[in-house]
Amino acid sequence: MTETTPYDADRARFTRQALARLVLSDHAVDVADGAAGLVATENDPDTGPGGRASQAFQLIELAERALVSAVVYERERGSSWTEIAQYLGIGPAEAEERFGASLDNWNTAFEVPYRLDDTGRKRIPQLPTAAYDPAWACNQLDTWARNRLVLVNEKRPVSAGLVKAVPEEELPPVTP
């Protein structure tokens, strides 16, 4: 069942590798923002017992999500399970077993872009938001990087490096 989505034209501007990279960038922002919340001490008195440990634990969950996104990205850019496993300190079969279902979900989301919610009336996108609506993600991530990364002078520090599906000059304008 292939259904169209409101963002198909925007998504068609990018390769699947680029969409996976947007998802990884989006998840990396979540990790960075979560870690930043642990830096300042001003609000420590307002945090209940165990609160900072809870925040730190949430970072692990966010980092795990970023790791899954990184593996999907690596597979999209052609990395083998052996190459990925080498950097994770595990065997290729273990890497494929650990991340294979996430990669399957990623692949399936391009064929079946929605699932119905429990009521059967509302369609829920299956792709992560950054891949589902890449124009929005590029804008958000470029702004985040320009505002927070000190040595970045590029106007589009995230989106400029993405692999386009077709040359930029052949693309129709991006919808806002």
> How many structural domains in the coordinates?
1
Termini Cα gap: 28 Å
Percentage of helical residues?
55-70%
Number of E strands: 2
Number of helices: 7
Q: Shape, please?
A: globular
Task: Decide which structural class fits the backbone.
Answer: mainly alpha
Unreliable spans: none
Report on this model:
By secondary structure, the protein is mainly alpha-helical. It has one domain. It is built from seven helices and two strands. It has helices spanning 8-12, 16-36, 51-76, 81-88, 92-111, 129-132, 134-148, and strands at residues 114-116, 123-125. The chain has a two-stranded antiparallel ribbon with strand order 1-2. It is globular, with a radius of gyration of 18 Å. The model has no long low-confidence stretch (mean pLDDT 90).
Name the features.
3% strand; mainly alpha; 7 helices; 176 residues; two-stranded antiparallel ribbon; 56% helix
At a glance:
This protein is mainly alpha-helical and about 180 residues long. Helix content is about 55%, strand content about 5%.
Q: How does the SSE layout of this entry go?
A:
Blueprint lengths: L7 H5 L3 H21 L14 H26 L4 H8 L3 H20 L2 E3 L6 E3 L3 H4 L1 H15 L28
Antiparallel strand pairs: 1-2
Helix pairs in contact: 2-3, 2-7, 3-5, 4-5
